[in-house]
Design brief:
This protein has 17 helices and 22 strands. By secondary structure, the protein is of the alpha/beta class.
Length: 503
């Protein structure tokens, strides 16, 4: 065996307006966890898609265990022992764990699937890995952490020796993160190799052996984890000093502007929302913490007029019709949790994406309802500049932006309209440390200007750093209210898992 499980030499990939990978060379050794970090748009995802056969490089070579590899598709990668766990799980919700694991790799007896052989191999693998999984459980009934274990199980069922994980902790509780890291270390200690893509530098320090930093499509450097620190990694990623903590003065809450009382939304086995009540005042940030799938999405949809409900939602004491347009016209801005599905129209240019939701109103339309192109262009240029969207083009379509810059377009659009209430759902998901710093600063500044902010995030660190008050959701209910300086992450994690009713 070669010392290196996977080596990339001079990998180059060009797109219109963007040199995504510029002669990148790096390697991950057998028996180690290599963290791959960099800003959004730095080229990490493109590089890993090349390794997994989803993208073809313009130049460069790939070596697996010392042998040159010709990877043209995921099938080629899998055959070479490479597995990838994507940030957004690739599971069929209505199928069982067993069906998802063997999908596309079903053992056959003649034309029929040999379920007995499949079950034997999957059960043995579950036991070997120590995963708490029932092969007959339906995916949609599993918590997020268990679904991620199914994704990992899928790759190992295909005999993966080199494992690539893209933002694997984005939706996990602290306890689930601990379980994942324990598995990663054990997997590497058995002589396998792991590439971990993450924006969470504290996690990099905890679990990795070495770190490769990419900036603007180039490798800035590779360092041994014990010989570096979070501040140095952040500086390598961004090219400047980064403020790693949220600096904010104590909140000065004013009048209640958003009230919800006894909200109820039907679900399958149990209600999605079951008696939720809350309030948000001017000049404060109220955080909603919880593992995804416990009603946060439905709560945001109710408050923004996107989902019917029973109960009461009032803005400034006024009950509003269940209409997204009415809610927005009143002065509510919404950063949606899924930027590609609800935040942007991917084939629209920046100039049109920054006016979405207000596109039918002055100052963007004239008396006869036609667009005022000059006004739109000037407004778009101001948002792009003020919110540091890169590249600085108002004509680039949404699909061409990295995740972080796409998020800046949405944040810029929602804040530039000077709302009374900001409902921010997962505002920094998949965003690099520089963009996180920028978005957090803007949310705090909005609070300090008197805006009422409701923050919904699966990132517990984000909720605890930004919020003035925290409400914890579990199974469609609010199970506790705490102050961030009066509770630990461990207590919060237990509450999020339904193991404690109060901190």
């Amino acid at each position: 065996m070669s010392e290196y499980a996977l080596e990339l030499k001079n990998i180059t990939k060009r797109y219109p307006l963007v040199l995504a990978n510029d002669h990148i060379s790096l390697g991950v050794k057998w028996g180690e966890v290599l963290a791959l970090v960099g800003e959004n748009g730095a080229g990490k995802s493109t590089l890993m898609k090349i390794v997994y056969g989803l993208v073809t490089p313009d130049e460069g070579e790939i070596f697996v265990d010392g042998e040159k590899a010709n990877i043209k598709s995921p099938s080629d990668a899998i055959a070479l022992g490479i597995g990838m766990v994507h940030q957004h799980f690739m599971l069929v919700d209505t199928l069982s764990v067993l069906d998802n694991v063997i999908l596309g790799m079903e053992p056959k007896t003649g034309p029929a699937i040999d379920y007995a052989a499949a079950r034997k191999k999957v059960v043995a693998l579950i036991e070997e890995l120590g995963f708490d999984l029932d092969p007959d459980a339906i995916i949609e009934e599993l918590p997020v952490g268990a679904q991620q274990r199914v994704e990992i199980l899928k790759t190992l069922y295909r005999d993966a020796r080199i494992l690539i994980l893209d933002e694997p902790t984005a939706v996990l509780t602290p306890q689930e993160v601990d379980e994942l890291f324990k598995f990663l270390r054990e997997f590497a200690d058995k002589g396998h190799a792991i590439i971990l893509i993450t924006h969470k530098l504290d996690e990099v320090m905890e679990v990795s052996d070495r770190v490769t930093v990419i900036r603007d499509g180039k490798v800035v450097g590779t360092v041994n984890t014990p010989e570096t620190n979070v501040a140095e990694l952040a500086r390598m990623m961004v090219g400047r000093e980064v403020i790693l903590t949220v600096n904010k003065k104590p909140a000065e809450p004013g009048e209640v502007v958003l009230e919800a009382e006894d909200l109820f939304v039907k679900g399958g086995v149990r209600p999605k929302l079951n008696g939720v009540s809350l309030s948000v005042r001017t000049g404060e940030i109220v955080g909603i913490a919880g593992v995804e799938g416990n009603g946060q999405t439905e709560l945001v949809e109710v408050l923004t007029g996107l989902r019917p409900y029973k109960g009461s939602v009032r803005y400034n004491g006024q009950e509003l019709a269940q209409s997204a347009r009415k809610v927005r016209e009143w002065g509510v801005s919404h950063i949606p949790e899924e930027r590609n599905d609800r935040g942007l129209i991917l084939e629209f240019s920046t100039r049109h994406n920054v006016i979405l939701g207000d596109h039918y109103r002055p100052p963007f339309v004239g008396f006869w309802g036609f667009f005022k192109d000059g006004v739109i262009d000037e407004y778009a240029e101001r948002v792009v500049e003020e919110f540091d969207v890169r590249p600085r083009s108002i004509n680039l379509i949404g699909r061409r932006y990295s995740g972080g810059n796409a998020q800046k377009i949405i944040v810029g659009r929602e804040l530039a309209r000077d709302p009374k209430v900001l409902i921010a759902a997962q505002p920094t998901r998949g965003v690099d440390i520089g963009a996180i710093e920028f978005i957090h600063q803007n949310i705090v500044e909005a609070r300090d200007k008197g805006m009422a902010v409701l923050l919904v995030s699966a990132d517990l660190n984000e909720v605890m750093n930004l919020s003035d008050r925290i409400l914890v959701m579990y199974e469609g209910r609010i199970v506790g209210e705490v102050k961030p300086d009066e509770v630990t992450e461990e207590q919060m994690g237990l509450m999020m898992a339904g193991l404690e009713a109060s901190a």
